[in-house]
Specification:
Helix content is 36%, strand content 12%. The chain is α/β, with parallel strands linked by helices. It has a domain of 343 residues. The strands form three sheets. An eight-stranded mixed β-sheet has the order 12-6-9-4-1-2-3-15, with helices on both faces. Strands 5-13-7-8-14 form a five-stranded mixed β-sheet. Strands 10-11 form a two-stranded antiparallel ribbon. α3 crosses α16, α4 crosses α18 and α11 packs across α13.
């Protein structure tokens, strides 16, 4: 039977349908192009927030900065901004936002300027730190710096005054033996003692503020909460078992790739991993390549920093660890999280460290001043060499400018790239956070500059008179020993302060293989 004839007009209908399907997408694409070209019809998510908005400000405006040597580093550039921080907000008062658990306090002793302190401080606000206890001296205690710091919610400023020194000289740990071997020595030893005394005071202050954890950091260190369910130190510590008293963060050391770094937190992304985070065969197998003729695997310390759960009888055990008068702390070491140590990241760090220390540039005298070998060598070079010789030495010993070697060590896992802190700090800057904070702090700065005004008028300043009663020292040793209200039931007379220590060297390889 012959096939039935096709209905008349069927081919024409199909052709019209194909034509419609072809023309419709082209028409829609052209319409979208016209609307975008005219600046309408397309919702740009980044346009929902005003440019350079400071979180928490009702009416963000472009604020002018006072003349300052840190304005270039802290101000946003003319380049594209990182818009995702515009929705973040920081508490407008020190009590806000503290319902989140656990509450984390960071304590530091610093003489740095705003160009270093502000990125450090707000980065840690972003990762969940609730309270900051800043023990300031030198440049950090100047009105144009301290006034800004005092105006920031969640920040307490403690000045190093004669009253404070007298008080600490009568404190508990000053009258104990575990720290005494560091007394009456210059430079790094003096700093180490100051840090420990400040940490003792900070424990009580943090407890009075309702904090759960306390961490001592320097302002050239950033906490990296690797391994947490979110990029948050608070979240990281919330997952620590309740019977753990101390958490150790192994440190990674910055590995700069040029000699003209201006802002380390925004420019450095390469770090050398800690011994504790590497297979031992890799560590010792790549030791010579990783050390590059320097005295040790790291330029400076390699024993990390620690967070302590705030509890009865807690005390510092040097700047790197905590201890307890009543028991041996139960501690764990984190397997992914770290402290990022930005050490010798700027060429000027050589001379700035030299200028802070009055030791003679001899191999014997520098041992009185510095605990670590590289610090000693750097001090001698900075004190005896010309600037050209210093720069050459800096490039040979500090700067990682051999790209092939860098790639080899990155593949082996000795070096690693970490970009998140860089992105956060750059985003804070481009969003106008730092410039807004400086501008908002100018009334406090101006008030400090008035001759009849005193620092004690600020609510964020701690002076001897308004310290918690548990921190005020008495003239008797018996009363001084009640500072933390501890009853000695644990014998810790053999415990000594943990100083900054270098990582294991090749001499330790044999011991490693014999274990």
């Amino acid at each position: 039977m012959p096939p039935a004839p096709a209905p008349p007009g069927g081919g024409a209908a199909w052709r019209r349908l194909l034509l419609l399907l072809t023309v419709l997408p082209l028409t829609l694409a052209a319409l979208a192009f016209v609307l975008q070209w005219r600046g309408g019809g397309v919702d740009d998510p980044t346009a929902r927030w005003p440019p350079h908005a400071f979180p928490g400000m009702a009416e963000p405006v472009r604020l002018s900065l006072p003349s300052s040597d840190c304005s270039d580093v802290l101000a946003g550039s003319s380049g594209p901004s990182f818009p995702y921080l515009r929705g973040w907000s920081f508490p407008s008062d020190s009590g806000a936002g503290l319902g989140l658990q656990p509450k984390v306090c960071v304590q530091t002793s610093t003489s740095a300027g705003l160009e270093q302190i502000l990125p450090w401080l707000f980065y840690h606000k972003v990762v969940g730190v609730a309270q900051f206890l800043l023990f300031v001296e030198g440049r950090a205690a100047k009105p144009n710096v301290a006034g800004v710091l005092e105006s920031i919610p969640g920040v307490k400023v403690v000045y190093r005054t004669k009253d404070l020194e007298d008080q600490q000289a009568r404190s508990r740990i000053w009258n104990e033996t575990w720290l005494s071997s560091f007394f009456y020595k210059p430079c790094n030893y003096e700093l180490f003692v100051k840090q420990s005394l400040n940490m003792e005071m900070a424990i009580v202050m943090a407890r009075d503020h309702g904090m759960d954890w306390i961490i001592h950091l320097d302002t050239d260190e950033l906490l990296y909460p690797g391994g947490a369910a979110e990029y948050s130190v608070r979240r990281l510590l919330s997952e620590v078992p309740h019977d753990v008293d101390m958490v150790i963060f192994p440190n990674y050391e910055s590995s700069v790739e040029c000699d003209n770094i201006k802002d380390p937190f925004s420019e450095v992304s390469m770090f050398k991993k800690n011994y504790d985070h590497l297979p031992k065969d890799t560590y010792f197998g790549m030791y010579k390549e990783a050390t590059r003729g320097n005295p040790n695997y790291f330029l400076t310390y390699g024993n990390g920093k620690s967070a302590a759960r705030i509890q009865d009888h807690l005390r510092p055990n040097g700047a790197h660890r905590w201890h307890n008068y009543a028991k041996s702390p139960n501690e764990i070491k984190l397997e992914e999280a770290a402290v990022l140590h930005y050490t010798y990241t700027k060429f000027s760090d050589l001379t700035s460290r030299r200028d802070r220390c009055g030791c003679k540039p001899t191999k014997e005298d520098v041992k009185r001043c510095f605990m670590l070998d590289f610090d000693r060598a750097a001090f001698i070079i900075a004190s005896t060499a010309s600037e050209e010789e210093m720069l050459r030495w800096y490039n040979e010993r500090v700067v990682w400018n051999d790209k092939q070697m860098n790639l080899k060590l990155l593949r082996k896992g000795v070096l690693t790239r970490i970009y998140t802190p860089m992105a956060i700090v750059q985003g804070l800057r481009e969003s106008g956070v730092f410039t807004s904070v400086i501008a908002a702090g100018q009334p406090a700065v101006n008030e400090k500059l008035l001759p009849k005004k005193t620092d004690a008028q600020s609510q964020n300043v701690t002076r001897l008179g308004n310290l918690p009663i548990k921190l005020r020292a008495s003239d008797s040793k018996a009363s001084a020993r009640k500072i933390l209200q501890a009853e000695l039931v644990f014998n810790d007379t053999d415990v000594t302060a943990v100083p900054p220590m270098s990582p294991p060297g090749l001499d330790d390889e044999h011991r490693h293989h014999s274990e």
